[in-house]
Design goal:
Helix 8 links the parallel strand 7 and strand 8. This protein is an alpha/beta fold and 383 residues long. The protein is built from 15 helices and 15 strands. Helix 7 packs parallel to helix 8, helix 9 runs parallel beside helix 11 and helix 13 runs parallel beside helix 14.
Length: 383
């Protein structure tokens, strides 16, 4: 099966700068591009989610009609191609250092855009006081997480966040919970979660709390605020791991307080968004299908794309790239060491045998135009 006839350039249509004719043709051919040297395969769902589409649509509309200098309070989403696109349109992306002196930079006659992750509440309040028009593109799923967490705080619960403590979304969530007068603790992985559980069940000294969880991870100075606990997750975490966290917390609380106390002491809200769950499930379906290689496409700062990479490499050899430019040759590929966040060039990344079955995954912040360029580049090696 081959894509319908047409040019093979991965160029977006004039109607949508983020679209790709190549992706459209592969999708119409059953998500498979068959070439002399093998197949390129796409999952049943990938790329921009509804929240990202909404945020980008709102920002494009603001660029089209504002007629004034636009300031974006951080990255609109975690994708360098997308952010650079809006820079070229004249949008100025403010850094954390610039947001610290927001009032010196943004004036009432300017426009401001809140990104899809939101912004910390103190910064949003300062922005609103400036009096400039504000476009709020924050994701509905993220806002629902804030509301649920704030309600849990009002009921006297400490909040356990399964997520990356320095990720933009979690930074904003922490600010909302703290403003509501609540305490939070952030665990970035199952190992940290288990450390917390061991302290709850007294298998580990609770006095170690502030050594395990630093000032980025908690605003509490002891374990005490978390003996009644509400669990949420950053919306882009692995759903399977989120459920493992829930089970471990339940086990620890049952051991310490008794099973009959769980309904009074534990709340759980599955805040991993549906789009993230769907993309993870589709990725697993594809990766189980006897692939020789998986190429994961997206920003290195994108949490959901990182998790797709984690999933992929548990099933097949996998590489993580930001765009087609990272594919230097059939022998060399530019990527990132995710442990050290250092640039890395992989050698002999592409298996030499033919035919090959290569899966391509894209995070919820990855535009189809970039995916199309990657497909086009990979196809050169399978001719």
């Amino acid at each position: 099966m081959t894509p319908p006839p047409g040019p093979t350039r991965a160029m977006p249509s004039k109607q949508d700068i983020f679209a790709s004719d190549v992706v459209d043709r592969v999708r119409s051919a059953g998500n498979v591009w068959t070439l002399p040297g093998g197949q390129l395969l796409l999952p049943r769902v990938f790329g921009f989610c509804r929240g990202v589409n909404r945020a980008l649509s709102m920002l494009r509309e603001a660029c089209r009609h504002e007629g004034r200098q636009l300031f974006l309070l951080g990255q609109i989403i975690h994708n360098p191609w997308v952010n650079e696109h809006f820079r070229r349109l004249g949008v100025e992306l403010l850094t954390a250092a610039q947001m610290a002196r927001l009032e010196e930079i943004v004036r009432p006659e300017h426009g401001a855009v809140i990104p899809a992750f939101g912004v910390p509440l103190p910064i949003e309040r300062r922005l609103r006081k400036i009096g400039c028009p504000v476009v709020d593109t924050s994701c509905g799923d993220v806002r629902r997480l804030w509301v649920w967490g704030e309600r849990a705080v009002a009921r006297g619960f400490g909040v356990f966040i399964f997520g990356r403590s320095r990720h933009d979304e979690t930074v904003v969530t922490k600010s909302r919970l703290a403003d509501a007068g609540g305490y939070y603790v952030v665990a970035g992985d199952l190992e940290q979660t288990q450390a917390f559980c061991d302290m709850i069940s007294r298998r580990r000294d609770p006095g170690e709390f502030t050594r395990v969880f630093d000032a980025q991870a908690t605003n509490a100075d002891s374990l005490a605020p978390f003996e009644r606990l509400a669990q949420v997750s950053q919306t882009t975490m692995l759903y399977d791991e989120t459920m493992q966290v829930r089970d471990r917390l339940r086990q620890a609380f049952a051991q310490q307080f008794g099973g009959e106390q769980l309904s009074q002491r534990l709340l759980f809200e599955p805040t991993v968004c549906r789009a993230t769950q769907d993309r993870q499930a589709a990725a697993v379906e594809l990766c189980r299908d006897r692939l020789d290689l998986v190429v994961v496409v997206g920003g290195f700062g994108s949490s959901n794309t990182r998790h797709l990479y984690e999933l992929a490499r548990s099933y097949a050899p996998a590489v993580f790239i930001e765009d087609a430019g990272a594919i230097l040759s059939a022998d060399e590929l530019r990527t990132m060491d995710l442990e050290t966040n250092s640039p890395l060039v992989l050698r002999d990344w592409l298996p030499r045998r033919r035919p090959l079955r290569v899966g391509v995954l894209a995070g919820a912040s990855s535009p189809e135009v970039v995916v199309g360029e990657v497909l086009h580049r990979l196809a050169e090696f399978l001719q």
